[in-house]
Write a structure and sequence with these properties.
The complex is a heterodimer. Chain A is α/β, with parallel strands linked by helices. Helices cover 43% and strands 12% of the residues of chain A. In chain A, helix 5 links the parallel strand 4 and strand 5. By secondary structure, chain B is of the alpha/beta class. In chain B, helix 1 links the parallel strand 1 and strand 2. The chains are: A alpha/beta, B alpha/beta.
Chain lengths: 300, 201
């Protein structure tokens, strides 16, 4: 009866990108406790990001921000059945080895934590678990994909509750794709050089008219309207960090953001779900941030 | 009359199913609301998060309309999360604290049967109605069919014998994702079932 399992291939590129495809049309929420993870799951989150501190607190408290305590991650994994993600510092491949061993479903190599390497990112192809990375423009997105990222998100400016940077990054990435798709083939190698991206990936994007992986939006989403805005711009799903658990009524807001992503083209639903949510997280005007307080420029 | 296949578009990889239908020259329709089911000959429930889609089915009042759709004899195919949603029951220790189900297909499924994401895999499976060559099946945090009711046919098994594709009348469930490959045979077969039903009715 039992036949050999010889042709079973685990953790292929297709299964890595595939998990990101399963998350599309969904909201991934930052959580720091098992209780928050359960609130996120009840609100309809497709995954949670297990963190030591949300970005708004990292910003406020300063110091070195690192991978979360394994006990915290395991407690969160225990509390929910949806996928659990966790962040590692840019270039910190040992934190990634630890997260893979803990069985997290996705690793975010994130500029929100303090970088561990100021020149190189992690070789993400070396891992069985898929990675998501932030990007501000197409060149950065393609460099991360070349290193093995199976999912890209805008960086935005995390912990500010201000959507402007995420919109800028999304538009830069999507405009870059549209431009490539319109270029004659002979220009692609030079453009690849200008983008700082491998020419094979540049050619693939030009031919397909899209990234070879899923594109989410992250960084500054605070309201259902913010979420629908980035979906209408072309994001395939949304990460919400501080926006939920730094607001007055986290469950209602989380649920409303999920509904806004499901029905992002339906203004009647958006109007309905935007009502009665209480105060959003307090936001930060980016003009008041000093250059060294900005997280998005981290990444190379 | 052109054939229209609906794809439940609350969350998940519905765009991949719509793209597969488009490549076959079949009109696909994204289904967000009960009214979107009108004129649809068959329904696909995509991959995604089963608990999320289940909550959204309830929130947007689609549970009864989909049950009525099944009652009318039109085919429904669930992939991965879609299989879980169609199932009668989920194995207790893998059930979420709240796990809404459509409960149409007489199977018991085990969620995340292979472990976490790092255990996701692909392999060739022989799908009975499709014949040779085998289908490349992609399993992502996939469920397994643990118990099969008396009127359920098993269409495909893993090398160790575990059922991964089932059919009960016009209801079909696969633990894997044909929509993630370029092989269109499963979609083609589903569309032919929908055409047959539409012609009879």
């Amino acid at each position: 009866m039992t036949q050999p399992n010889a042709d079973i291939q685990q953790a292929t590129w297709r299964t890595k990108v595939g998990l990101a495809q399963m998350l599309k049309g969904g909201v991934i929420m930052d959580v720091v406790t098992p209780e928050q993870a359960q609130i996120a799951e009840e609100a309809g989150a497709v995954a949670v990001m297990a963190l030591e501190r949300v970005p708004a607190d990292i910003r406020r408290e300063g110091g070195v921000a690192r991978m979360a305590d394994p006990d915290r991650i395991l407690a969160i994994k225990e509390a929910v059945t949806i996928p659990v993600m966790a962040k590692v510092r840019i270039g910190h491949f040992v934190e990634a080895q630890i997260l893979e061993t803990l069985g997290v479903d996705f690793i975010d190599e994130s500029e929100v934590l303090t970088p561990a390497d100021d020149r190189f990112h992690i070789d993400k192809h070396a891992f069985r678990v898929p990675f998501v990375c932030g990007a501000r423009d197409l060149g950065e997105a393609l460099r991360r994909i070349a290193e093995g990222a199976a999912m890209i998100r805008s960086k935005g400016e995390a912990g500010t509750g201000n959507i402007v940077e995420a919109v800028r990054h999304l538009r830069d990435i999507l405009d870059g794709i549209r431009r490539l798709a319109a270029l004659p083939r002979e220009e692609l190698v030079t453009v690849a050089k200008e983008l700082g991206a491998p020419s094979e990936l540049v050619r693939e994007v030009a031919e397909q008219g899209r990234l070879p992986v899923v594109l989410f939006c992250a960084g500054g989403v605070a309201t259902p309207a913010d979420a629908a805005l980035v979906m209408q711009l072309g994001a395939e799903g949304v990460f919400v960090g501080s926006g939920i658990f730094k607001s007055e009524n986290p469950f209602a807001r989380a649920k409303a953001i999920v509904d806004a992503v499901t029905h992002y083209r339906d203004p009647e639903v958006l109007a309905q779900v935007s009502r009665g949510l209480g105060e959003a997280m307090p936001g930060i005007d980016l003009a008041t941030l000093a250059p060294e307080q900005r997280l998005a420029p981290r990444g190379w | 009359m052109t054939l229209v296949i609906g794809v439940l578009a609350l969350q998940g990889d519905f765009a991949e199913h719509l793209a597969a239908l488009q490549r076959l020259g079949v009109e696909g329709r994204d289904v967000h609301r009960p009214a979107d089911l009108a004129g649809v000959a068959g329904l696909i429930i995509p991959g995604g998060e089963s608990t999320t889609i289940g909550r959204l089915l309830e929130r947007w009042e689609l549970v009864e309309p989909i049950r009525a759709f099944a009652q009318s004899g039109r085919p429904i195919w669930g992939t991965c999360a879609g299989l879980i949603l169609l199932a009668r029951e989920v194995v207790a220790e893998t059930r979420a604290r709240y796990q809404p189900l459509l409960g149409l297909l007489d199977v018991v499924v085990r969620r995340n049967a292979f472990g976490s994401q790092r255990e996701s895999f692909e392999c060739d499976v022989l799908v009975e109605p499709l014949g040779l060559p085998p289908l490349r099946a992609v399993f992502i945090r996939a469920p397994l069919v643990e118990t099969v009711g008396p009127t359920v046919e098993v269409l495909a098994r893993l090398p160790d014998g575990a059922p991964v594709a089932v059919k009960q009348g016009h209801l079909i469930g696969t633990a894997f994702h044909p929509e993630l490959t370029d092989d269109l045979r499963f979609h083609q077969w589903f569309c032919s079932l929908a055409t047959k039903t539409a012609n009879i009715q």
